[in-house]
Fold these 2 entries.
Entry 1:
Amino acid sequence: MSKRPHVSKPQSAPSSSKKERTHTKGANTGPIAFFIALFVIAVGSIQIISAFHTYAINLSELNSLKKQEAVLAAQKKDLENDIARWDDPAYVTAQARERLGYVFPGEQAIKVEHPEAVSGEQPKSDANANTETGQSNLPWYSELAYSFKESDARNPDATNNGNTAESRQQNDPDATAGTDAPQDGGSAGQ
């Protein structure tokens, strides 16, 4: 074994600049990685918030539908009770007597015109409200007959007020049949 002196190699300049380049490269990737991570966290947070918002809306809608279901179930129960009542002949008879005024053969129907005079009680406020608004308390069949009488009693010429071309010709022979201008000298827009 021979002894040779150990000679160190001189370090070249390009290798030292290579280390500097990698060091500066690492310094530039830190902020970029931070902003990318921040962006990913922001997008993830938005997605989570959106999912919770959708969940809250769906939960609210579910609760609303459950309340609506309970109301409809109560209505169904009431309607089934009404159907069961109408299956009872005594209830049907009572309704015919009350609503339509039917009586059995041999009975005499008596209707008190002013029940408040007999009982001393004031009429219901609903009845007063109906008469003030123009609604009547007559049964539907009496109201129908009354409306037929009213419509038959009206004069057809009264509804037209004599403004047809034929009635104007009969009233004024000089008027032409083709014009519909007012005869009182007013403008056509009135």
Entry 2:
Amino acid sequence: MQLDKSSFTIPNKRNEALEDLIRENSTCVTYPAKRVFLEPGMEPQGVYYIAEGRTRHYMMAGDGTEKILYTLSAGWFYGETPVSLQEPTGLFSKAEVKTQIYIIPLRTYEHLVDTNKMFRDAIMENILKKMLILRHEIENLTFNSCKDRLKRLFCSTADTERLIDGGWYKLKVHYTQYELSTIIGGARVTISKLINELCDEGFIRMLNRNVQVNQEEYRKFMENS
């Protein structure tokens, strides 16, 4: 299960005219894989636009436990909330792979929001999408058990267009147990136990350390969700 194959959010749509505008009004930086470029309390340099690569945005408890809010791939903005409020960030932000980012300074960002409808609409859509991600996460944590959250994650990433061995779906996304624990909100030992339970129940199977979801169990779960 390769970390560099993981993505916890859908890719954002790309707009060539928007990206031309951003390039003209920003500074380009490249972060190597695993680089933490923002930490809680730091002032963002501006609004970040991900041109290539992928970033992880997460919280960390005092004991080192992480909780991922989302990862963002090419086409996403980040930092518009703390920059607009002129407050420091409250999250850790890390490049998961080599990542190219355009940083739009605050004054330029404010000018573009005021004067360019295309840019303003893109920022608004980006904020609303992230609000939906967080709303669904609150709903998931509040109303679903850890086991159901794990089932929901597997089903949401099942490749239902390809059936394997007459009854199994591969996952479009491959996760490590650590990644699953930070997404689901459970300890790694709990995730390991639940994976074994789901295998025993026939909901999933493991082939070459990769998870596959049973077609019939997928159908039942989605009908009852």
